[in-house]
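Dissemination and training. As part of the outreach component of the grant, students in the summer workshop were shown how a complex can be specified as a set of sequence lines and then modelled as a single object. The example used during the hands-on session is reproduced here so that future cohorts can follow it. Participants entered these lines:
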Amino acid sequence: MRWFLDNLDEIRTLALQHLWLSVVPVIAGFVLALPIGWLANRFRRVRGPLIGLVGVLYAIPSLPLLIILPGVIGTSFLDPGNVAIVLSIYALAVMVRTACDAFGQVPHEALESASAAGYAPWQRVVAVELPLAGPVLLAGLRVASVSTVSLVTVGALVGVSNLGSLFTDGFQRGFRTEIVIGVLAVVVLALVLDALWVALGAVLMPWRRA
Amino acid sequence: MSGVFGEAADWLGSSAHWHGDDGIPHRLLQHVGYTCLTVAIAGAIAIPLGLWIGHTGRLRGLAIAVTGALRALPTLGLLTLVVLWRGIGLTPPITALVVLAIPPLLAGAYAGLESVDRQTIDAARGVGMNEWQVLGRVEIPLAMPVILGGVRNAVLQVVATATVAAYIGLGGLGRYLIDGVAVRDYPQTLAGAVVVVVLALVLDGMFALLQRFSLSPR
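and obtained this result:
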Protein backbone atom coordinates (compact mmCIF):
# COMPACT_ATOMS: atom_id res chain seq x y z
CA MET A 1 0.00 0.00 0.00
CA ARG A 2 2.84 2.36 0.87
CA TRP A 3 4.60 1.53 -2.34
CA PHE A 4 1.39 2.14 -4.25
CA LEU A 5 0.96 5.62 -2.78
CA ASP A 6 4.64 6.49 -3.21
CA ASN A 7 4.60 5.54 -6.86
CA LEU A 8 1.19 6.82 -7.78
CA ASP A 9 2.52 9.20 -10.42
CA GLU A 10 4.55 6.51 -12.12
CA ILE A 11 1.60 4.09 -12.07
CA ARG A 12 -0.68 6.77 -13.49
CA THR A 13 1.73 7.41 -16.37
CA LEU A 14 1.96 3.69 -17.12
CA ALA A 15 -1.81 3.29 -16.87
CA LEU A 16 -2.40 6.12 -19.34
CA GLN A 17 0.08 4.62 -21.78
CA HIS A 18 -1.61 1.25 -21.24
CA LEU A 19 -5.03 2.77 -21.86
CA TRP A 20 -3.86 4.35 -25.09
CA LEU A 21 -2.26 1.09 -26.25
CA SER A 22 -5.56 -0.73 -25.58
CA VAL A 23 -8.15 1.71 -26.88
CA VAL A 24 -6.49 2.38 -30.24
CA PRO A 25 -6.33 -1.33 -31.25
CA VAL A 26 -9.85 -2.08 -30.00
CA ILE A 27 -11.35 0.80 -31.98
CA ALA A 28 -9.20 0.14 -35.05
CA GLY A 29 -10.04 -3.56 -34.93
CA PHE A 30 -13.75 -2.80 -34.54
CA VAL A 31 -13.89 -0.32 -37.40
CA LEU A 32 -12.08 -2.74 -39.72
CA ALA A 33 -14.05 -5.78 -38.55
CA LEU A 34 -17.42 -4.18 -39.39
CA PRO A 35 -17.11 -4.15 -43.20
CA ILE A 36 -15.17 -7.45 -43.28
CA GLY A 37 -17.73 -9.19 -41.09
CA TRP A 38 -20.54 -7.69 -43.16
CA LEU A 39 -18.98 -9.00 -46.38
CA ALA A 40 -18.34 -12.40 -44.83
CA ASN A 41 -22.00 -12.63 -43.87
CA ARG A 42 -23.35 -11.24 -47.13
CA PHE A 43 -21.29 -13.30 -49.56
CA ARG A 44 -21.17 -16.97 -48.69
CA ARG A 45 -18.31 -17.64 -51.04
CA VAL A 46 -15.83 -15.36 -49.27
CA ARG A 47 -16.97 -16.39 -45.81
CA GLY A 48 -14.92 -19.61 -45.54
CA PRO A 49 -11.61 -18.11 -46.72
CA LEU A 50 -12.11 -14.90 -44.71
CA ILE A 51 -12.94 -16.69 -41.47
CA GLY A 52 -10.05 -19.09 -42.14
CA LEU A 53 -7.61 -16.24 -42.68
CA VAL A 54 -8.79 -14.52 -39.53
CA GLY A 55 -8.31 -17.79 -37.62
CA VAL A 56 -4.73 -18.01 -38.85
CA LEU A 57 -4.03 -14.43 -37.72
CA TYR A 58 -5.47 -15.29 -34.34
CA ALA A 59 -3.28 -18.40 -34.06
CA ILE A 60 -0.04 -16.41 -34.32
CA PRO A 61 1.45 -15.88 -30.83
CA SER A 62 1.74 -12.23 -29.80
CA LEU A 63 5.36 -11.98 -28.64
CA PRO A 64 6.84 -13.40 -31.86
CA LEU A 65 4.56 -11.17 -33.92
CA LEU A 66 5.73 -8.14 -31.93
CA ILE A 67 9.27 -9.06 -32.91
CA ILE A 68 8.57 -9.84 -36.57
CA LEU A 69 6.43 -6.77 -37.31
CA PRO A 70 9.16 -4.10 -37.06
CA GLY A 71 11.20 -6.13 -39.56
CA VAL A 72 8.27 -6.23 -41.96
CA ILE A 73 7.07 -2.63 -41.80
CA GLY A 74 10.45 -1.08 -40.95
CA THR A 75 9.55 0.60 -37.66
CA SER A 76 11.95 0.87 -34.74
CA PHE A 77 11.96 -2.17 -32.48
CA LEU A 78 10.98 -0.07 -29.44
CA ASP A 79 8.19 1.82 -31.18
CA PRO A 80 4.92 1.56 -29.15
CA GLY A 81 3.18 1.65 -32.52
CA ASN A 82 4.21 -1.98 -33.05
CA VAL A 83 2.19 -3.01 -30.01
CA ALA A 84 -0.80 -1.02 -31.25
CA ILE A 85 -0.64 -2.63 -34.70
CA VAL A 86 -0.16 -6.19 -33.42
CA LEU A 87 -3.04 -5.83 -30.98
CA SER A 88 -5.24 -4.32 -33.70
CA ILE A 89 -4.66 -7.50 -35.68
CA TYR A 90 -5.84 -9.64 -32.74
CA ALA A 91 -8.80 -7.40 -32.01
CA LEU A 92 -9.71 -7.60 -35.70
CA ALA A 93 -9.36 -11.39 -35.67
CA VAL A 94 -11.66 -11.70 -32.66
CA MET A 95 -14.25 -9.28 -33.97
CA VAL A 96 -14.58 -10.32 -37.62
CA ARG A 97 -16.13 -13.59 -36.54
CA THR A 98 -18.53 -11.89 -34.13
CA ALA A 99 -19.41 -9.24 -36.71
CA CYS A 100 -20.25 -11.98 -39.22
CA ASP A 101 -22.49 -13.68 -36.63
CA ALA A 102 -23.97 -10.33 -35.61
CA PHE A 103 -25.09 -9.50 -39.14
CA GLY A 104 -26.16 -13.10 -39.64
CA GLN A 105 -28.68 -13.04 -36.79
CA VAL A 106 -30.51 -9.96 -38.14
CA PRO A 107 -33.99 -11.27 -39.07
CA HIS A 108 -34.63 -11.49 -42.78
CA GLU A 109 -38.13 -10.12 -42.32
CA ALA A 110 -36.69 -6.87 -40.95
CA LEU A 111 -34.46 -6.44 -43.99
CA GLU A 112 -37.26 -7.22 -46.39
CA SER A 113 -39.64 -4.82 -44.65
CA ALA A 114 -36.99 -2.11 -44.83
CA SER A 115 -36.62 -2.65 -48.57
CA ALA A 116 -40.39 -2.65 -48.98
CA ALA A 117 -40.59 0.61 -47.03
CA GLY A 118 -38.26 2.17 -49.56
CA TYR A 119 -34.83 2.03 -47.95
CA ALA A 120 -32.00 2.15 -50.46
CA PRO A 121 -29.51 -0.75 -50.04
CA TRP A 122 -26.81 1.31 -48.29
CA GLN A 123 -29.45 3.07 -46.20
CA ARG A 124 -30.75 -0.29 -45.11
CA VAL A 125 -27.26 -1.33 -44.00
CA VAL A 126 -26.71 1.77 -41.89
CA ALA A 127 -30.21 2.35 -40.52
CA VAL A 128 -31.51 -1.20 -40.12
CA GLU A 129 -28.80 -3.86 -40.25
CA LEU A 130 -26.21 -2.07 -38.14
CA PRO A 131 -28.52 -1.19 -35.23
CA LEU A 132 -30.01 -4.70 -35.20
CA ALA A 133 -26.53 -6.23 -35.18
CA GLY A 134 -25.50 -3.77 -32.45
CA PRO A 135 -25.98 -5.88 -29.32
CA VAL A 136 -23.91 -8.80 -30.67
CA LEU A 137 -21.28 -6.39 -31.98
CA LEU A 138 -21.07 -4.85 -28.52
CA ALA A 139 -20.57 -8.30 -26.96
CA GLY A 140 -17.69 -8.97 -29.37
CA LEU A 141 -16.18 -5.58 -28.65
CA ARG A 142 -16.21 -6.28 -24.92
CA VAL A 143 -14.44 -9.64 -25.34
CA ALA A 144 -11.79 -8.06 -27.57
CA SER A 145 -11.35 -5.16 -25.16
CA VAL A 146 -10.74 -7.36 -22.11
CA SER A 147 -8.19 -9.56 -23.86
CA THR A 148 -6.45 -6.58 -25.44
CA VAL A 149 -5.93 -4.85 -22.09
CA SER A 150 -4.35 -8.04 -20.78
CA LEU A 151 -2.23 -8.62 -23.92
CA VAL A 152 -0.71 -5.13 -23.86
CA THR A 153 1.44 -6.23 -20.92
CA VAL A 154 3.46 -8.53 -23.21
CA GLY A 155 4.78 -5.35 -24.84
CA ALA A 156 6.85 -4.76 -21.69
CA LEU A 157 9.08 -7.67 -22.76
CA VAL A 158 10.21 -5.77 -25.85
CA GLY A 159 10.68 -2.56 -23.87
CA VAL A 160 7.41 -0.74 -24.57
CA SER A 161 6.37 0.66 -21.23
CA ASN A 162 2.86 0.08 -19.88
CA LEU A 163 1.45 -1.49 -16.72
CA GLY A 164 3.27 -4.68 -17.74
CA SER A 165 6.51 -2.85 -16.92
CA LEU A 166 5.52 -3.29 -13.28
CA PHE A 167 5.78 -7.06 -13.83
CA THR A 168 9.23 -6.98 -15.42
CA ASP A 169 10.52 -4.41 -12.91
CA GLY A 170 9.01 -6.23 -9.94
CA PHE A 171 10.39 -9.53 -11.20
CA GLN A 172 13.92 -8.20 -11.61
CA ARG A 173 13.87 -6.70 -8.12
CA GLY A 174 12.13 -9.71 -6.58
CA PHE A 175 9.38 -7.35 -5.36
CA ARG A 176 6.02 -9.11 -5.21
CA THR A 177 3.92 -6.11 -4.19
CA GLU A 178 4.74 -4.31 -7.42
CA ILE A 179 3.53 -7.26 -9.52
CA VAL A 180 0.35 -7.70 -7.48
CA ILE A 181 -0.45 -4.01 -7.88
CA GLY A 182 0.30 -4.31 -11.59
CA VAL A 183 -2.11 -7.24 -11.96
CA LEU A 184 -4.81 -5.37 -10.02
CA ALA A 185 -4.26 -2.24 -12.09
CA VAL A 186 -4.62 -4.20 -15.34
CA VAL A 187 -7.82 -5.88 -14.15
CA VAL A 188 -9.26 -2.54 -12.97
CA LEU A 189 -8.37 -0.92 -16.28
CA ALA A 190 -10.09 -3.77 -18.15
CA LEU A 191 -13.21 -3.34 -16.02
CA VAL A 192 -13.26 0.45 -16.44
CA LEU A 193 -12.91 0.15 -20.20
CA ASP A 194 -15.61 -2.52 -20.24
CA ALA A 195 -17.97 -0.23 -18.30
CA LEU A 196 -17.20 2.49 -20.83
CA TRP A 197 -18.21 0.28 -23.78
CA VAL A 198 -21.40 -0.76 -21.97
CA ALA A 199 -22.25 2.90 -21.29
CA LEU A 200 -21.50 3.81 -24.89
CA GLY A 201 -23.74 0.96 -26.01
CA ALA A 202 -26.56 2.23 -23.80
CA VAL A 203 -26.24 5.72 -25.33
CA LEU A 204 -26.11 4.47 -28.91
CA MET A 205 -28.79 1.81 -28.47
CA PRO A 206 -31.31 3.44 -26.13
CA TRP A 207 -34.07 1.01 -27.20
CA ARG A 208 -32.16 -1.81 -25.56
CA ARG A 209 -33.41 -1.21 -22.01
CA ALA A 210 -34.13 -4.54 -20.41
CA MET B 1 13.56 -5.25 -44.51
CA SER B 2 15.24 -7.98 -46.51
CA GLY B 3 18.38 -7.21 -44.47
CA VAL B 4 17.09 -8.36 -41.09
CA PHE B 5 15.21 -11.26 -42.59
CA GLY B 6 18.33 -12.28 -44.50
CA GLU B 7 20.31 -12.26 -41.26
CA ALA B 8 17.58 -14.28 -39.55
CA ALA B 9 17.66 -16.77 -42.42
CA ASP B 10 21.45 -17.01 -42.05
CA TRP B 11 20.98 -17.61 -38.35
CA LEU B 12 18.49 -20.38 -39.07
CA GLY B 13 20.74 -21.86 -41.73
CA SER B 14 23.84 -21.96 -39.55
CA SER B 15 24.50 -25.53 -38.46
CA ALA B 16 25.72 -24.32 -35.06
CA HIS B 17 22.09 -23.55 -34.21
CA TRP B 18 20.90 -27.05 -34.95
CA HIS B 19 22.93 -28.91 -32.30
CA GLY B 20 23.11 -29.20 -28.54
CA ASP B 21 20.99 -27.92 -25.70
CA ASP B 22 20.49 -24.51 -27.26
CA GLY B 23 19.87 -25.90 -30.74
CA ILE B 24 16.57 -25.54 -32.54
CA PRO B 25 15.55 -29.25 -32.40
CA HIS B 26 16.08 -29.40 -28.64
CA ARG B 27 14.27 -26.10 -28.00
CA LEU B 28 11.42 -27.12 -30.28
CA LEU B 29 11.07 -30.46 -28.52
CA GLN B 30 11.07 -28.71 -25.14
CA HIS B 31 8.39 -26.31 -26.33
CA VAL B 32 6.18 -29.09 -27.64
CA GLY B 33 6.86 -31.09 -24.47
CA TYR B 34 5.74 -28.24 -22.17
CA THR B 35 2.68 -27.76 -24.34
CA CYS B 36 1.68 -31.45 -24.22
CA LEU B 37 2.32 -31.71 -20.48
CA THR B 38 0.34 -28.56 -19.73
CA VAL B 39 -2.62 -29.42 -21.93
CA ALA B 40 -2.68 -32.99 -20.58
CA ILE B 41 -2.82 -31.81 -16.96
CA ALA B 42 -5.29 -29.02 -17.69
CA GLY B 43 -7.41 -31.39 -19.77
CA ALA B 44 -7.53 -34.00 -17.01
CA ILE B 45 -8.97 -31.30 -14.74
CA ALA B 46 -11.10 -29.21 -17.08
CA ILE B 47 -12.64 -31.68 -19.53
CA PRO B 48 -14.38 -33.99 -17.00
CA LEU B 49 -15.53 -30.89 -15.11
CA GLY B 50 -16.80 -29.26 -18.30
CA LEU B 51 -18.58 -32.45 -19.36
CA TRP B 52 -20.23 -32.64 -15.96
CA ILE B 53 -21.32 -28.99 -16.17
CA GLY B 54 -22.61 -29.49 -19.70
CA HIS B 55 -24.41 -32.74 -18.90
CA THR B 56 -26.08 -31.64 -15.69
CA GLY B 57 -26.37 -27.92 -16.42
CA ARG B 58 -25.14 -27.21 -12.89
CA LEU B 59 -22.62 -24.46 -12.04
CA ARG B 60 -22.91 -23.08 -15.55
CA GLY B 61 -23.02 -19.46 -14.40
CA LEU B 62 -19.92 -20.00 -12.29
CA ALA B 63 -18.03 -21.59 -15.18
CA ILE B 64 -18.83 -18.63 -17.45
CA ALA B 65 -17.79 -16.13 -14.77
CA VAL B 66 -14.49 -17.90 -14.06
CA THR B 67 -13.66 -18.22 -17.76
CA GLY B 68 -14.35 -14.53 -18.31
CA ALA B 69 -12.39 -13.39 -15.26
CA LEU B 70 -9.34 -15.45 -16.22
CA ARG B 71 -9.29 -13.78 -19.62
CA ALA B 72 -8.68 -10.43 -17.96
CA LEU B 73 -5.75 -11.77 -15.94
CA PRO B 74 -2.45 -10.72 -17.56
CA THR B 75 -0.37 -13.85 -18.16
CA LEU B 76 2.98 -12.12 -17.67
CA GLY B 77 1.85 -10.91 -14.24
CA LEU B 78 0.76 -14.38 -13.24
CA LEU B 79 4.02 -15.92 -14.47
CA THR B 80 6.32 -13.48 -12.68
CA LEU B 81 4.27 -13.72 -9.50
CA VAL B 82 4.30 -17.51 -9.47
CA VAL B 83 8.10 -17.56 -9.71
CA LEU B 84 8.62 -15.02 -6.92
CA TRP B 85 6.23 -17.09 -4.85
CA ARG B 86 7.36 -20.63 -5.51
CA GLY B 87 10.88 -20.18 -6.84
CA ILE B 88 12.36 -21.14 -10.19
CA GLY B 89 12.24 -24.61 -11.71
CA LEU B 90 9.77 -26.32 -13.96
CA THR B 91 6.78 -26.62 -11.62
CA PRO B 92 5.89 -22.91 -11.13
CA PRO B 93 5.69 -21.97 -14.81
CA ILE B 94 3.88 -25.20 -15.71
CA THR B 95 1.38 -24.51 -12.91
CA ALA B 96 0.72 -21.05 -14.33
CA LEU B 97 0.35 -22.45 -17.84
CA VAL B 98 -2.13 -25.05 -16.58
CA VAL B 99 -4.24 -22.35 -14.94
CA LEU B 100 -4.32 -20.44 -18.22
CA ALA B 101 -5.18 -23.52 -20.28
CA ILE B 102 -8.19 -24.47 -18.13
CA PRO B 103 -10.72 -21.83 -19.33
CA PRO B 104 -10.67 -22.71 -23.05
CA LEU B 105 -10.82 -26.45 -22.30
CA LEU B 106 -13.67 -25.98 -19.84
CA ALA B 107 -15.55 -23.72 -22.23
CA GLY B 108 -15.11 -26.19 -25.10
CA ALA B 109 -16.40 -29.11 -23.05
CA TYR B 110 -19.53 -27.49 -21.65
CA ALA B 111 -20.37 -25.47 -24.75
CA GLY B 112 -19.94 -28.66 -26.79
CA LEU B 113 -22.47 -30.57 -24.72
CA GLU B 114 -24.83 -27.60 -24.75
CA SER B 115 -24.72 -27.52 -28.53
CA VAL B 116 -26.18 -31.04 -28.69
CA ASP B 117 -29.87 -31.03 -29.61
CA ARG B 118 -32.08 -31.70 -26.56
CA GLN B 119 -34.38 -33.91 -28.65
CA THR B 120 -31.50 -36.20 -29.58
CA ILE B 121 -30.66 -36.64 -25.90
CA ASP B 122 -34.28 -37.33 -25.01
CA ALA B 123 -34.44 -39.85 -27.83
CA ALA B 124 -31.33 -41.59 -26.48
CA ARG B 125 -32.96 -41.80 -23.06
CA GLY B 126 -36.15 -42.98 -24.73
CA VAL B 127 -34.45 -45.98 -26.30
CA GLY B 128 -33.28 -47.01 -22.84
CA MET B 129 -29.73 -45.61 -22.55
CA ASN B 130 -28.56 -44.82 -19.03
CA GLU B 131 -26.88 -41.48 -18.22
CA TRP B 132 -23.36 -42.80 -18.88
CA GLN B 133 -24.39 -44.18 -22.24
CA VAL B 134 -26.12 -40.93 -23.17
CA LEU B 135 -22.92 -39.06 -22.31
CA GLY B 136 -20.47 -41.48 -23.88
CA ARG B 137 -22.34 -42.58 -27.00
CA VAL B 138 -24.44 -39.55 -27.89
CA GLU B 139 -23.35 -36.30 -26.26
CA ILE B 140 -19.55 -36.61 -26.46
CA PRO B 141 -19.42 -37.82 -30.09
CA LEU B 142 -21.80 -35.05 -31.20
CA ALA B 143 -19.93 -32.45 -29.16
CA MET B 144 -16.50 -33.61 -30.35
CA PRO B 145 -15.81 -30.79 -32.85
CA VAL B 146 -16.54 -28.14 -30.20
CA ILE B 147 -14.54 -30.00 -27.52
CA LEU B 148 -11.61 -30.25 -29.94
CA GLY B 149 -12.04 -26.53 -30.65
CA GLY B 150 -11.45 -25.93 -26.95
CA VAL B 151 -8.32 -28.12 -27.03
CA ARG B 152 -7.14 -26.20 -30.09
CA ASN B 153 -7.56 -22.86 -28.33
CA ALA B 154 -5.78 -24.20 -25.25
CA VAL B 155 -2.85 -25.54 -27.28
CA LEU B 156 -2.40 -22.24 -29.13
CA GLN B 157 -2.63 -20.30 -25.91
CA VAL B 158 -0.02 -22.51 -24.22
CA VAL B 159 2.37 -22.29 -27.20
CA ALA B 160 2.11 -18.50 -27.02
CA THR B 161 2.35 -18.26 -23.26
CA ALA B 162 5.25 -20.73 -23.02
CA THR B 163 7.12 -18.30 -25.27
CA VAL B 164 6.46 -15.48 -22.83
CA ALA B 165 7.40 -17.81 -19.95
CA ALA B 166 11.00 -17.87 -21.21
CA TYR B 167 11.22 -14.54 -19.42
CA ILE B 168 10.92 -16.33 -16.09
CA GLY B 169 13.45 -18.98 -17.05
CA LEU B 170 11.43 -21.63 -18.86
CA GLY B 171 13.27 -23.33 -21.74
CA GLY B 172 11.76 -23.85 -25.15
CA LEU B 173 11.69 -21.58 -28.18
CA GLY B 174 10.96 -18.48 -26.13
CA ARG B 175 14.62 -18.53 -25.03
CA TYR B 176 15.72 -17.25 -28.46
CA LEU B 177 13.30 -14.34 -28.19
CA ILE B 178 14.00 -13.32 -24.62
CA ASP B 179 17.77 -13.90 -24.78
CA GLY B 180 17.95 -12.22 -28.15
CA VAL B 181 16.16 -9.10 -26.88
CA ALA B 182 18.42 -9.05 -23.80
CA VAL B 183 21.64 -8.96 -25.82
CA ARG B 184 20.10 -7.09 -28.78
CA ASP B 185 20.74 -9.99 -31.13
CA TYR B 186 17.91 -9.19 -33.53
CA PRO B 187 18.61 -11.98 -36.07
CA GLN B 188 18.34 -14.63 -33.34
CA THR B 189 15.19 -13.02 -31.91
CA LEU B 190 13.58 -12.83 -35.32
CA ALA B 191 14.56 -16.39 -36.26
CA GLY B 192 13.14 -17.69 -32.98
CA ALA B 193 9.95 -15.72 -33.54
CA VAL B 194 9.53 -17.22 -37.00
CA VAL B 195 10.00 -20.76 -35.63
CA VAL B 196 7.32 -20.17 -32.95
CA VAL B 197 4.89 -18.82 -35.53
CA VAL B 198 5.48 -21.82 -37.79
CA LEU B 199 4.93 -24.19 -34.85
CA ALA B 200 1.67 -22.45 -33.91
CA LEU B 201 0.37 -22.51 -37.47
CA VAL B 202 1.28 -26.19 -37.94
CA LEU B 203 -0.50 -27.15 -34.71
CA ASP B 204 -3.50 -25.01 -35.65
CA GLY B 205 -3.69 -26.70 -39.03
CA MET B 206 -3.48 -30.15 -37.46
CA PHE B 207 -6.38 -29.37 -35.17
CA ALA B 208 -8.41 -27.94 -38.05
CA LEU B 209 -8.05 -31.28 -39.83
CA LEU B 210 -8.79 -33.24 -36.67
CA GLN B 211 -11.97 -31.22 -36.11
CA ARG B 212 -13.07 -31.85 -39.67
CA PHE B 213 -12.56 -35.61 -39.35
CA SER B 214 -14.34 -35.75 -36.00
CA LEU B 215 -17.43 -34.43 -37.77
CA SER B 216 -17.83 -37.35 -40.17
CA PRO B 217 -20.35 -39.97 -39.06
CA ARG B 218 -19.10 -43.35 -37.94
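The mean pLDDT of chain A is 85. Students were then asked to discuss how this feature might be tested experimentally.
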